[in-house]
Amino acid sequence: xxxxxxxxNLNNKKILLRLDLNVPLENxxxxxxxxxxxxxxxxxxxIQQKSKIIxxxxxxxxxxxxxxxxxxxxxxxxxxxxxxxxxxxxxKNIYKINSKDFFxxxxxxxxxxxxxxxxxxxEKNDHKFAKHIANLGDIFVNDAFSCSHRAHASIQQIPxxxxxxxxxxxxxxxxxxxxxxxxxxxxxxxxIGGSKISTKINIIKNFIPKFDNIIIVGGMANNFxxxxxxxxxxxxxxxxxxxxxxxxxSLSNKEGxxxxxxxxxxxxxxxxxxxxxxxxxxxxxDEMILDIGPKTIxxxxxxxxxxxxxxxxxPAGYCENPNFANGSIEIAKKIIESNKANKIFSxxxxxxxxxxxxxxxxxxNFNFVSTAGGAFLEYLEGKKLPGITALD
Length: 392
Known about the structure:
By secondary structure, this protein is an alpha/beta fold. Helix content is 35%, strand content 17%.
């Protein structure tokens, strides 16, 4: 994988730049700009090099249909303001765009092709579709790490037709995750949440031989709480997962990695209800576990305080309701405190966790924050990502 920084001659070159601009939109307005802001250094670098830039990206899951509410128009407007440069959205059908006069017709330094997922060929990883797009450019740059676990045409196929490079943000993501995998300073702790334990079993198994502590929070912790004989009421849980819990416990005992799950919790009868602190043995059948309790928070703080490296993926509770966000907020505060004291190297990943940190306005207080979810986990799991492999 070669970084675009290694390419010396970018002047007047047409750069096909794959970005992940899949930001949340509401009534045509961007709710969270984190993903866009992270790729600005790559765009500014290419502008300085006097390159001609063609942005490829998507929003949402239109599944090959043209949906007005999933247009990249709001993103185009935002980029125009942030870059103080000419940025134009091209809504013309890709198949009707002629590569020879592309920049003559659309006279701007930066052109954005409309939502690439408006074409079914994108997710089908269509070879001919990718070849047609590749004809528009001289060089391909992938700066969409968060999409690189997808075998899609604009991720995996285009590099077959053009000299291909990684962007600045993709380099940062891979370097930070490689540090977690290969250059970690022990003790190392992983705080991992989410609703489904089966989707994260492989990453947990991969971490157990390398990590000192794995703290299970969020919905997946309910499987552990129930496994050890506690009633979890009507809490979210994944069915038929006792064998997975047993496998994690057995492997952790063998490798000397400590597994932690909540000792006390915050419950409610409704998602929009008020919070109530409970010991595990006191949970009623009509209650839901929606956050970790104060005893658990204090234990996690002690573990973080004794760690040198921390990886956090997945909030500790139902953060959409502030009544159940305290566990995640306290974890964030403790990591930030250790960071400011230069006691820890911290990597945070996953959309829900990043959204929480955005709301708290503390993104800049971690060593590295990844907006990637699936790609983040699959890379740490040791899987080869199609988008990364395609650049090799």
